[in-house]
Design a protein that fits this description.
Protein name (chain A): RNA polymerase subunit sigma-24
Order of helices and strands of chain A: HHHHHHH
Structural class of chain B: alpha+beta
CATH architecture of the largest domain in chain B: 6 Propeller
Strand order of the largest sheet of chain B: 1-24-23-22
Pfam family, one (chain A): Sigma70_r2
Largest sheet of chain A: none
Distance between the termini of chain B: 64 Å
Oligomer: heterodimer
Domain RNA polymerase sigma-70 region (chain A): 28-94, 131-179
GO molecular function, one term (chain A): sigma factor activity
Structural class of chain A: mainly alpha
Family (chain A): Belongs to the sigma-70 factor family. ECF subfamily.
Strand content of chain A: under 5%
Order of helices and strands of chain B: HHHHEEEEEEEEEEEEEEEEEEEEEEEE
Largest sheet of chain B: 4 strands, antiparallel
Radius of gyration of chain B: 25 Å
Distance between the termini of chain A: 64 Å
Radius of gyration of chain A: 18 Å
CATH topology of the largest domain in chain B: Neuraminidase
Chain lengths: 187, 357
Amino acid sequence: MAMAMKRSTRPSSDSSAEYYESRDFTELYDEYFDRVNRYLRCRVQNPWDADDLTTTVFLKALEKFDQYSRTSPFASWIFRIAHNTYVDFMRKNREFPVDQDDLLGGEPDDTWQPERQALTNEEIRLLRDRLDKLTQDQRDVLTLRYFADLKISQVAEVLGKTESSVKMISYRALHQLQKMYERGEGE
Amino acid sequence: MRDEKHIPTDWSEDHSVAQLLAHLQKLRRSVPVNYQLKAELKKQLLQRIKELDKERQQSLVGSRPNRFRLVWSLAGGVVLLVLAVWYGFWPHGVLSVRQPSLLAMEAVIDQERVDLNADGTRIAYVTGGSTIRTYALHEPDKKVDLSLPVDHGDFTSLSWSNRADQLAVVEQQGETSRLWIVDVPDDKQSGSSRLIKEEEGAAFRSPNWSPADDSIVYTRTSDGVEEIWVSSIVSMRDWKVAEGSQPEWSPDGRLLAFTKQGSVFVMEMRSGRTTLVGRGGWPSWNSESSLTFTTPEGTLAEAEVNEQPPVLKEVPIRSWKGGRLVRAHWAADREHLLLLQAGDETENTLVVSLASR
């Protein structure tokens, strides 16, 4: 008889054969909202669009939650939805032009994290300009790896690539990005 | 960051790469998170979870017998066949009144209180000020009344969505205006409603759905100033797009038609460029580049907005018995047209008819 799956309030390591995600949707939402919102705010210029996309991601996730196997990491599953939603959005090219000052600033409410004050909008803009000079694969890998904070294995799962391929893309992308920083491109 | 151990040895020793990784980590932490959205979306998700639970329970109770469904399918097929044969004899593209005097409404202010669904088969209207009634046009005896959780005010405007069976409804209670979304109940789902926006000291009117049904554009009047606002029903954000009233999105979402000071304008959403179309009101799109509107003389005009200046022509309506046209509004299929005509004896009544082409 097969061994019963281990259940816990927190998932075991995703590399474990006994991985099981037992948390309900709202608990997972509480944990993953920030990462998804940050990821989309990094990828989409207009923060309103990024927030709309974040909402779409979690509404889709709720409707499809029955299809989530729970034996694989929720991070991979939710970011696959987030990434596909972003790709669909870019394909439809629905972004309206906005004043670039709206990129991170200009929000009249006081709901943002205090850390945002520590970084100038210019640094983010500069990074986005430099990411735009990389290939689509490199941009996808770097943003999923460093802005969605996914592991290499999870990035591979989201993008449908092998881990070694993701490592290589990440290595080359970082190398190129580093060169751009050294040369001061876009400044 | 964890990647330091995945980078080849010769490179990980490079101090500048370590600096880059630290910089990226710092940037990630600095991207702001919208915590207001997080709280609002959680409420929305909890509401949806309740609805899904309810739907699951209903589906467990059992569905109707297959035989019943078969009879309905056959009946629907026969109706479709009859309609196909009937419309086959009419010349295509000519606008004709199909169902005259569907409804009589009490006052001219009721002109926003009636609308057709996406395929022109169902009508919804406000009766008695605070009841929303809907019925299929081929079954006028089977009327369904919808209710909202809070029904102290009067419903002043309503609009069908383009895809799902949803209505955007404006409720006015004293100085407070509310914008609701109401699911129209059918065999599969029970009716539910969601409050999208509430504001004291302002009056909302003339809601209209975006092509993807993810935003609602509407008129917001405050201190006598009419403005056009958009509310996203996904992120719950709202923003002003122009001054004017009676907004309507083009089918592709590229253009917004609206009325200002007795004239119809079209605004390109991407650039904000606005073009005067002509004197009149209640613009309504009959294709992606063409709209109709009612003229001050009470006739229907059509404008090709891709031409500069827009080319205008009067639209003849076959079987139209005359009378002053107050409003004409196309269903989302752009085939069915709701006509609101001022009553013969007194201008303070409205007669609602259905035309199609």
